[in-house]
Amino acid sequence: VQLQASGGGLVQAGGSLRLSCVASGRTFSSYAMGWFRQAPGKERDFIVGMWHGDSTYYADSVKGRFTISRDNAKNTVYLQMNDLKVEDTAVYYCAAGRGTWPPNRYWGQGTLVTVSS
């Protein structure tokens, strides 16, 4: 599986962004998908995930502000980010996996989100 993330950019605090991650292959629907982020000088954290049956996981830091969704017909997973905060500034990575949780078997290249005050 190859993953291509996009949609990052510069946004003011309180604003919104939507990240997209397009996957190659014909078995996209069978993969659990997730978003991770890595802030400067910090470890990469698992923040959002979606597995079979559209069950979801959200880290406390993003719960109520971020929403994950997927379109299996387009092999795409989205991360809608609302009410962005300066502390959301990070490189965001999409990832996929089968039989693992968090889904971290395959990785996209990362997209930078910068939130200004």
Description of the molecule:
- The protein has 117 residues and is mostly beta strands.
- Helices cover 0% and strands 53% of the residues.
- The protein is built from no helices and 11 strands.
- Strands 2, 4, 5, 6, 9, 10 and 11 form a 7-stranded mixed β-sheet that branches. Strands 1-3-8-7 form a 4-stranded antiparallel β-sheet, with no helix packed on it.
- The model has no long low-confidence stretch (mean pLDDT 95).
Task: Specify Rg, calculated over alpha carbons.
Answer: 13 Å
Strand content: over 45%
Structural class: mainly beta
User: Mean pLDDT score, rounded?
Assistant: 95
Q: What is the strand and helix layout of this fold?
A:
Elements: E1 3-6, E2 9-12, E3 17-23, E4 32-38, E5 44-51, E6 55-58, E7 66-71, E8 76-81, E9 90-97, E10 106-107, E11 111-116
Parallel strand pairs: 2-11
Antiparallel strand pairs: 1-3, 3-8, 4-5, 4-9, 5-6, 7-8, 9-10, 9-11
List keywords for this structure.
117 residues; 0% helix; 7-stranded mixed beta sheet; 11 strands; 4-stranded antiparallel beta sheet; mainly beta
Summarize the structure.
With 117 residues, the chain is an all-beta fold. The chain has no helices and eleven strands.
